[in-house]
Amino acid sequence: MGEPKIIDLQVNDHAGTLKDGDKIVIATLHGNDNLSNKMMKGGMQLESIKVFKALFVMPDVEEVALLWQFPTTDSGGNSSLNTVLKITITKTTANKINWSEFDKDNFVKLADSYWELPSLRE
Q1: How does DSSP classify residue 23?
Q2: For 17-57, how does the pLDDT look when each residue is reduced to its tens digit (9 = 90+)?
Q3: Residue pair 44/85 in contact by the 8 Å Cβ criterion
């Protein structure tokens, strides 16, 4: 697409834990829209594995939310950048996952929060 992969990156204090210094990372990323819906979804899930694996080795990261976006077109023909896949995982969940052997299709079962645009299921 020629766009940077990272649209926005926020690292905030995590108010939902008792441990001082815990962080929540919210990354908004460009999805690859040059593929079919199934291939695009799989690509975003595979990239998510890499991002989660890298971020959860950092001791202060308690939660990570990945928001994958790409341009969608509404019924009026207007195009805008929208979230098409969102995956949130806590450190507790991440510690249960063997990232090297993890099947991307299991995000829907194991993520603390998982949402995808319904058209990605086609």
Answers
A1: E
A2: 777 889 999 999 988 755 566 688 899 999 999 999 999 99
A3: yes
| SS3 state at 40 | helix
Report CA-CA distances (Å) from 1 to 32, 52, 75.
Answer: 7, 23, 23
Query: Which residues lie below 8 Å from residue 15, measured CB to CB, with a gap of 6+?
Result: none
**How far is Cα 8 from Cα 27, in angstroms, rounded to an integer?**
6
Q: Tokens for 106, please give them.
A: 């299991």
Residue 66 pLDDT more than 80?
Answer: yes
Question: Residues 47-78, buried b or exposed e (16+ Cβ, 10 A)?
Answer: bbbebbeebbeeeebbbbbbbbbbeeeeeeee
User: How does 82-114 read in b/e, with b if 16+ C-beta sit within 10 Å?
Assistant: ebbbbbbbbbeebeebeeeebeeeebeeebeee
- Three-class secondary structure of residue 45 per DSSP: helix
Report, as an integer, the average pLDDT of 83-91.
Answer: 96
Question: For position 1, what pLDDT does the model report?
Answer: 45
